[in-house]
Amino acid sequence: MSAQRLQRPFGAVPLPGGGVEFRVWAPAASHVAVRLRGADRELAPGDGGVFAGELDAAPGDDYLLVLDGSRALPDPCSRAQPEGIRGPSRVVDTERFEIAPGPELELAGLVLYELHVGTFTRAGTFDGAIPHLARLRELGVTAVELMPVATFPGNRGWGYDGVYAYAPHPAYGGPEGLARLVDAAHRAGLGVLLDVVYNHIGPGSEAIGAFGPYFTDRHHTFWGDALDYSRAAVREWAIQNALMWTRDYRIDGLRLDAVHAVYDDSPVHVLRELKERVAGLIISEMGCADFTPLEEWGHDAMWLDSLHHELHVALTGEQEGYYAQHGSPEGLVRELTRPQPERLVVAAQNHDQVGNRAVGDRLPADAHRVALAVVLFSTCTPLLFMGEEHDEAAPFQFFTDHVDPAIAEATRAGRKREFEAFAAFGREVPDPQSIETFERSRITHRDPDPFYAELIALRSTLPRELDVQLAWPVLTLRRGEATLVADLGSKTVELRA
After folding, report:
1. Has 276 been annotated as catalytic?
2. How many other CB atoms are found less than 10 A from the CB of residue 442?
3. Is 87:78 a contact under the CB 8 Å cutoff?
4. Of the listed 161, 183, 248, 257, which one is catalytic?
5. Following DSSP, what letter does each residue of 285-338 receive, concatenated?
6. Which of 247, 215, 237 is nearest to 228 (CA)?
7. Residues β-bridged to residue 302
8. Contacts 24+ apart (CB under 8 A), 431-440
């Protein structure tokens, strides 16, 4: 099958003259039909296991794909799942979205604000976030970064266990809600980045695997079966998803989750091909200081948690788990003086470094003030985690809403087991399935600390050169005429500008 034919969009795509084209990769099936308006309508088989057909359908119609006359399942590339992962797919016309153009984003001026839609406001929706956008732009944020919004099991979750990667989560407001949020952000002068997951599919992935060999046993991930990117159609599943977000929703860039777990032995890695075909910023999360995304795949930037780890150990003294390798003066200086710092996204806190703690506790206010000041004064690209601008005290805990009771219980047990080895932790691990765990994680919305606003405003006026001096425990950073003095021992920080 030609690459050009394979690159035609999968899923249900409304046609300009009426009707809808349905295309699905289903090499495991002999026959595929669309169950639509109470009737099954056969799709024509084509090369490479693709079934396709133009049917009398319209935006708003619900449908299922029927494999070999028996099993009816949602579309692997469904654009909407209004009833969740076990309900029908819905035809969506993304051409009808009215989304204003976004601002021009440059790494040297980027200030990111990571937020989880469900806990950012009491409403927990895309629309609920809109009234807060102007405040973030006034603070100096240049782009919001949404944690994953693909449809995942239940209503509550971090989003990294998405099943239907093309379908904005119904509890957040679905496709139309996301389009309204992006439009409002752009009109407020903010870019929008979206966190996407191409290393695994969450619980319920067997419904995707029923269509064909999406997964491989040649590789394994911590979270689930690895995707088989040696198969051209699986590559298209990921790349067309990235194209949809940036083209149809006019999202300005993507943050690719845990790319160290995206396995591909092909001559051209799938994430390099993604960068070549997708417009907008591509930022990768790497599990360690491995610069493959920048050096081999051409990505614009990458998350690097090493500066967070060095600051965390220096300010808290914790050295259990992965913190054991950090906390030296040399390590802190190294992280602040890496080359091409604008290509490194750094943070005092992010969803991982707060949420993956047993009770999701944030840094104490004095330690946080020092850590965030260092991050904002650095020449790296800074990321604030929602609420940091006012030293939010609410935790960000690990919460789920799995619809499969066995998966729910396994998640509870796994979470408890994860922290048994930590001698310093003697409390009960919050039940991830409890709605109270989710509710505790909602942030407040108070006025930002003027100190952080001042540091953000300074970023655009200071030279890119950073002088770092460390006479332990006093860290002195200089950029032009401005100096930041952080005492890591007394947990105080002073800006001299």
Report:
1. no
2. 17
3. no
4. 257
5. E-SSS--HHHHTS--SEEE-THHHHHHHHHHH---SGGGGG---HHHHHHHHS-
6. 215
7. 284, 344
8. 432/397, 432/398, 432/399, 432/400, 433/399, 433/400, 433/401, 433/402, 433/408, 434/399, 435/156, 437/397, 437/398, 437/399, 438/118, 438/119, 438/156, 438/397, 438/399, 438/401, 440/360, 440/394, 440/395, 440/397
Q: Amino acid identity of 443? A: I
User: How many residues are recorded in the chain?
Assistant: 497
pTM: 0.96
For 3-96, give the CATH class: mainly beta
Comparing CA positions, the residue from 140, 134, 166, 139 lying closest to residue 152 is: 166
pLDDT in tens, 318-361: 988 788 788 899 999 999 999 999 999 999 999 999 998 999 99
Q: Specify the CATH architecture of the domain 304-463.
A: Alpha-Beta Barrel (3.20)
pLDDT > 70 in the chain, percent:
97
Reported in sequence order, the residue ranges of 116-273 that DSSP labels E, i.e. its strands, are 143-146, 150-151, 164-168, 191-196, 215-220, 225-227, 253-256
Is residue 114 among the annotated active site residues? no
First to last CA, the chain: 62
- What are the sequence ranges of the domains in the chain? 3-96, 304-463
Can you read off the two tokens belonging to residue 124?
Answer: 């927990």
CA distance linking residue 75 with residue 463, whole number of Å:
51
Strand partners, 143: 112, 191
Question: Which of 14, 16, 39, 13 has its CA nearest to residue 24?
Answer: 13
Question: DSSP strand E in 372-491: where?
Answer: 381-385, 467-471, 474-479, 482-487
Alpha carbon separation from 287 to 145, 262, 293, 305 (Å, rounded) = 19, 11, 11, 8
Which among 285, 310, 335, 392 is annotated as catalytic? 285
